[in-house]
Amino acid sequence: SSASPSRRSVAAMPPRAISIKVAREEDLSSHIGNDGFYFDLVDFDRVRAFQIPDNTTMSRLKEEIAVEFSIPSQFQRLWLFCKRQNGTWRPVRPFSTEENNLSMTSLHKLLSRTFLFLNPDGVKLFLEVLNDSSPQNLSNDDGLVFLKLYDPEQTQIRYIGMLFVKASSRPSDILPKLRSLAGFCADEEMELYEEIKFEPSAMCEAIDANITFSESQIGHGDIICYQKSSKSLSHHAYPSVEIFFKRIHDLKAVVPVLYTFPSLKT
């Protein structure tokens, strides 16, 4: 028998266009610490958006990304950005090789039980650019953390890089790497904090460098803020990143406008 008009119309429905926002490390570097953006990782209103049909595969999207950013597909690892229960947006997991062959619609069906894949305003992704030192096959012991460096003397915070850490390792193991990234001397005393959330209040907690990342519940998408020891900085208005974040949050709560560094010094 012939298909009913309703069935024919469903079958003939064209693919729906969806927005895919792809954040890169360049975005994190240019956003964090600039134009009043201090918390979280990226302002998704200011990243490149791709408009693609919902039957497009992840592999096809990577081809478009390759053209736009001049990064060959084989050097791309895409991560799903999700909104956490505390309101922050963080990368939660990379897409597997098998998932690269699925359409956006299929990925939505696969992931929606655990994650909000298709947000009302599209899909949000993080593009990791692979190099010789990038871990190829990630295990449950690997965690991708993002690093912010706070300078109390300049009252400035900036994005300084990302790092894979082992859940079974300790923050003390990465201190040489953190010093190197910041340009600190080899014996510089430092303080590490985890940036947890910023609504309804700023929450930034000191990290014990001698217990494992697993015990501190630090893993994919978490933010480590670090700085020189605040012991000798008590004469500064905001000697620690924890105090700095709380001050920024209080200023925005009183007058909800974009605050820049000069306004902190008034």
Automatic annotation (TrEMBL):
One of its GO terms (molecular function) is cysteine-type peptidase activity. One of its GO terms (cellular component) is nucleus. Keywords: Hydrolase, Protease, Thiol protease, Ubl conjugation pathway. Pfam families: USP7_ICP0_bdg (PF12436). Belongs to the peptidase C19 family. This is Ubiquitin carboxyl-terminal hydrolase 7 ICP0-binding domain-containing protein. Gene3D superfamilies: Phosphatidylinositol 3-kinase Catalytic Subunit, Chain A, domain 1.
